Amino acid sequence: MDLVLSVADHYFFTPYVYPASWPEDNIVRQTVSLLIVTNLGAYVLYFFCATLSYYFVYDHSLMKHPQFLKNQVYREIMFTVKSLPWISIPTISLFLLELRGYSKLYDDVGDFPSGWIHLVASVVSFLFFTDMLIYWIHRGLHHRLVYKHIHKPHHVWKIPTPFASHAFHPVDGFLQSLPYHIYPFVFPLHKVVYLGLYVLVNVWTISIHDGDFRVPQVLRPFINGSAHHTDHHIYFDYNYGQYFTLWDRIGGSFKHPSSFEGKGPHSYVRKMAEGEFNSLAENGCKSEKLCNAEFAKTK
Q1: Residue among 176, 128, 168, 129 nearest 151 (CA)
Q2: Under a CB-based contact definition with an 8 Å cutoff, are residues 141 and 236 in contact?
Q3: What is the DSSP letter of 260?
Q4: What is the CA radius of gyration of the chain?
Q5: For residues 114 and 55, what is the distance between their CA atoms, to the nearest angstrom?
Q6: C-alpha angle 31/17/35, rounded to 5°?
Q7: What is the 3-state secondary structure (H, E, C) of 127-162?
């Protein structure tokens, strides 16, 4: 985060916002700056990526599903807008520790004998480490003593859209992001790689709520994609993982996505439409033109 803050200081905060007497390394100034940068970045990333996904990836036919709520998209957005600032408060405390040198983040690839090999290995390590912790945190949030107080608001969206991706209770949102912040305090990680991964995991979170189930056949047993996560929202006790199916298989919570078997929400909506068309046909239409018009409405 110091890379982002240094750019913000150089081009905005130092010349236009803060007085010259307030040094850039002052902890109070850094805290205020991190609050601004973190919230602004979160909103920009959320609205930009979720909007693109909603208009260009998301299958809007899912909005005809009976479990899709009235004004759901608006409600998802408003829930997110209200939650993100609260999620950012504990988050910036960890960013502040990173900023002040308490993490194992580094600048130079040459700091390690293995150089680029270590950098690539750290990416793989980051994904598997965070996937493991998120699995257990997420599963813990489904415990009956915790669920109704913290995680239940996210499960209001049975048929989620990309805008539901960050619609969490603030405690829930922070806990599920915690593994991303823990990693650089335990393992060395390049600062640019960390920033890139942080953006990636937010984009991934949006992608598993986008209702698009096109995953290469060879990857379906291993990748926890949108089809897996949709079943998590519908059936509750399955597919807690973030990127991979590994820990769901180890923990006995893996469920083969119903959408891959023709039993998912897409199939349900399609059968609903076919049922309405068949009902029109059975009741008789005054003309072929009228029948076609009615069928177009159901589609």
Answers
A1: 168
A2: no
A3: G
A4: 23
A5: 43
A6: 25
A7: HHHHHHHHHHHHHHHCCHHHHHHHCHHHHHCCCCCH
Q: Cα separation of 128 and 249, whole Å?
A: 14
| CA–CA separation, 153 and 171 (whole Å) | 11
The C-alpha atoms of residue 255 and residue 241 are separated, in whole angstroms, by 11
Q: What is the pLDDT of residues 83-118, one digit of tens each?
A: 999 999 999 999 999 988 899 988 887 777 677 888
- Whole-structure pTM value: 0.85
Who contacts 28 (Cβ-Cβ below 8 Å, separation ≥6)? none
CA neighbor of 205 nearest in space, from 244, 170, 245, 243? 243
pLDDT in tens, 18-68: 998 899 889 999 999 999 999 999 999 999 999 999 999 998 988 999 999
